[in-house]
Write a structure and sequence with these properties.
Strand content: 25-35%
Largest sheet: 9 strands, mixed
Oligomer: single chain
Order of helices and strands: EEEHEHEEEEHEH
Protein name: 7-carboxy-7-deazaguanine synthase
CATH class: Alpha Beta
Radius of gyration: 17 Å
Number of strands: 9
Bound molecules: S-adenosylmethionine, ligand 2KA, iron/sulfur cluster, magnesium ion
Helix content: 10-25%
CATH topology: TIM Barrel
Shape: globular
Strand order of the largest sheet: 3-1-2-4-5-6-7-8-9
Keywords: 4Fe-4S, Iron, Iron-sulfur, Lyase, Magnesium, Metal-binding, Queuosine biosynthesis, S-adenosyl-L-methionine
EC number: 4.3.99.3
Distance between the termini: 28 Å
Pathway: Purine metabolism; 7-cyano-7-deazaguanine biosynthesis
Enzyme class: lyase
Number of helices: 4
Length: 211
């Protein structure tokens, strides 16, 4: 298996249940719900994406022909800090287009706690420690269990109530970041207060100015 990776960088997990934890982010290139080209945004299934996942030209990005090369690059990005805290977040783009058992096994052997951020349209391979699913209107949800379901809110045609029967430990609403983000934040706060099964999720890395 070879892998196309947009970027690999060390930061803090900014969202969800592992928030604040030092993490290597491995951002795979490519997504099945948008080409990533601005010209295609309005005809994409997912139209609100906040991320550049096109190409392999970011910091630490590249084409990795073997799983052990990518696992080594992730280990190198973690560097010589406390190995007992090793934590990697696979995101994208859509990471489940590329993340496979071989890469997961190599990182487990290196002692990494492995998280994934996925749109849920593909079933996750075994061995991931933290699955965060973020469903998108107009797509079919196949990964229907995990540690957290993190719904970007609001999305036309998606009612949070439709997800609460699924097998997730926590349900979070993440206000959609666009030109109306303040309105979306207010709406998400109100929804959580009326439906306390839902917890508010903020993108704290944007608030504190880290990648
Ligand atoms: C860029 S996506 C990559 C992972 C995967 N493709 C997915 O959608 O879950 C990472 C996270 O950012 C969220 N996200 C993307 N665009 C956003 C926006 N404009 N506002 C809030 N969250 C957003 C996604 O829903 C997902 O939880
Ligand atoms: N700091 C930080 N935390 C994040 N959590 C999820 C992210 C993502 O793009 O998947 C993200 C990101 O891009 N940066
Ligand atoms: S599914 Fe994820 S990566 Fe793909 S366009 Fe939507 S938010 Fe961006
Ligand atoms: Mg992001």
């Amino acid at each position: 298996m070879s892998y196309a990776v947009k970027e690999i960088f060390l930061t803090l997990q900014g969202e969800g249940g592992q928030i604040g934890r030092t993490a290597v982010f491995c951002r795979f290139a490519g997504c099945n719900l948008w080409s990533g080209q601005e010209a295609d945004r309005t005809k994409a299934i997912c139209q609100f994406c906040d991320t550049d996942f096109v190409g392999v030209d970011g910091i630490g990005g590249g084409r990795f022909t073997e799983a052990d090369q990518l696992a080594d690059a992730i280990e190198q990005c973690w560097g010589d800090i406390d190995p007992s805290c090793r934590f990697v977040v696979f995101t994208g783009g859509e990471p489940l287009l590329q993340l496979d058992g071989e890469l997961i096994d190599l990182l487990k052997k290196k002692g990494f706690f492995i998280a994934v951020e996925t749109n849920g349209t593909l079933v996750a391979p075994q061995g991931i420690d933290w699955i965060c699913v973020s469903p998108k209107a107009g797509s079919t949800l196949l990964q229907r269990s995990g540690k957290e379901l993190k719904l970007v809110y609001p999305q036309d045609g998606l009612d949070p109530q439709d997800f609460v029967g699924l097998d997730f430990a926590v349900f979070r609403l993440q206000p959609k970041d666009d030109k109306n983000k303040h309105e979306h934040l207010q709406k998400a706060i109100e929804y959580c207060q009326k439906n306390p099964k839902w917890h508010l999720s903020l993108q704290t890395h944007k608030l504190i100015g880290i990648p």
